[in-house]
Each structure stands twice: as structure tokens, then as C-alpha cells.
Amino acid sequence: MIEIKNIEKSFGDSKVLKGISTVFETGKTNLIIGQSGSGKTVLLKSLLGIHTPEKGTISFDGRIYSNLTADEKRKLRTEIGMVFQGSALFDSMSVEENVGFPLKMFTTKTAEEIKKRVDFVIDRVDLKEAHHKKPSELSGGMQKRVAIARAIVNNPKYLFCDEPNSGLDPKTAIIIDNLIHEITVEYNITTVINTHDMNSVMEIGEKIIFLKQGILAWEGSKKDIFKTDNEAITDFVYSSNLFKKIRKAQNKEE
């Protein structure tokens, strides 16, 4: 579980995050949504320790990040997996080299132990035939699978995903959504996803927080969206063609 309390973050005279408090639950896919400039990316980077909030606290299973020693922060980082928007794979490395990179850099595992773990996670994301291929030989969806395998290779407690469906066709995006959700449940990970994809909201939105101009304007599940009278979230989600179709279908049933 990740708990944030009264987070504030500014850049110069511009306050980007304005007293945000929420809980990201373990074993669930927690989504951060909102328009461009709403503070989604700044919040994600604050969770990752890239930005330091001026006020408030971020706790990882009771450990307040700002209170940790340098060694404790390094240990916490080994418990975090990250899926970047552009996959961020090393072009010169094969799939198995990319996936094994965190183990070689941050653990003392033997070559045999690394090979065993790398084989396992590559199989888990259904890339059995791609071990020795380079990223340039893979489709966008396959590259995302490699990125997910690399993110989970070190058995993280926390998984962060920045726009994981960016650049993917709708069918592939759903496959990636479902894979992230399956892994989250299977390994009981606290997963936080920064997304603008309304399909992701409907596929895997177990906990959703909606940011508007740096404020947490709404939170709930994908089911709660259809019940809420909160104008901030309804104005945002019903600008999506997907949600318009769903609402139209619901009105017909009623």
C-alpha cells in the first residue's frame, strides 16, 4: 500500500499539486487520470522520488519516504518496478539481456539464478520465442511485454506504469492492460498507472483518482464513474467516445 497525505509540489510560482491525499491499494490496479497539465506526471514522479514535495508525506507500507536514510531509500528502490511510456529498452541488448539488466545491476544473484529468473518472467509475458531478439525486431506490443518483464524481474512490491498503452492499437492495448492486471493480482503488487486511455479505465480501473488543476477532484472505481454526479469527472470521461457509447447503451436499457 502507498499512502500520500496532503502532497504539495510547486515549480517556481506555479503550484502543480495542491494538497493531494489518497491511498493506492495493494493487489489492485490504481489509475491516475486527468487532462494534460493536471499534475499526473508530477504526482507519479513524486511517488518515484524524482520530485520532492514541499509539503506532505508519501508512505510505502508505513515507511515515510522523507524519513528514510539513504541506505533505506536505496533498498526501497529495489522494491520498485517501472514501465516507461516508450518502453525504454536498450537497443543493443537482446530481450533476455534487457530483462536481466536489473538483476545484474542491483542483486548478487549468480549467472545461473539470473538465467532462471529471466526465463521465468519472459515466459510469463508470453515471449518464449523472443529471448535472443533485439527490440528493433519486435512489435510495439512485444516491446511493452519486455518492459513489463524487466519491471517485474526483481519481484517488486510496487509497480509504476507511465502511459503503458501509448502508441499501441486498441486491441494490443487491452492485452497489455490485462497482463498488467493479471501480474498485479498474481504477485499482490501495488500498481500505479498514469494514463489518459479511457479504455484502460474501463478494463482495469479498480481504483481511480482524477486530478484537475493539481487537485484530487474525484476518486472511485470504474463502476462508480457511472453513478457519480461529480461534474469534474463526468465532464472529463464523457468527452470520450467510448463513454458516450456506454452511457447511450445504458439509457436504452433503462
How does this model look, in words?
The chain has about 250 residues and is of the alpha/beta class. It has 10 helices and 10 strands. The chain has a 6-stranded mixed beta sheet with strand order 6-7-8-3-9-10. The radius of gyration is 19 Å and the shape is globular. The protein starts with a strand and ends with a helix.
Poorly predicted runs are none
Give helix and strand order, one letter per element, not per position.
EEEHEEHEHHHEHEHEEHHH
Q: Strand order, biggest sheet?
A: 6-7-8-3-9-10
Mean pLDDT: 89
- Name the helicity range: 40-55%
Tally of DSSP β-strands: 10
The description of the largest β-sheet is:
6 strands, mixed
- Report the β-strand fraction as a percent range: 15-25%
Helix/strand class: alpha/beta
What's the shape? globular
Radius of gyration: 19 Å
- CA-to-CA gap between the ends? 38 Å
Tally of alpha and pi helices: 10
Characterize this entry briefly.
The chain is α/β, with parallel strands linked by helices. Helix content is 41%, strand content 24%.
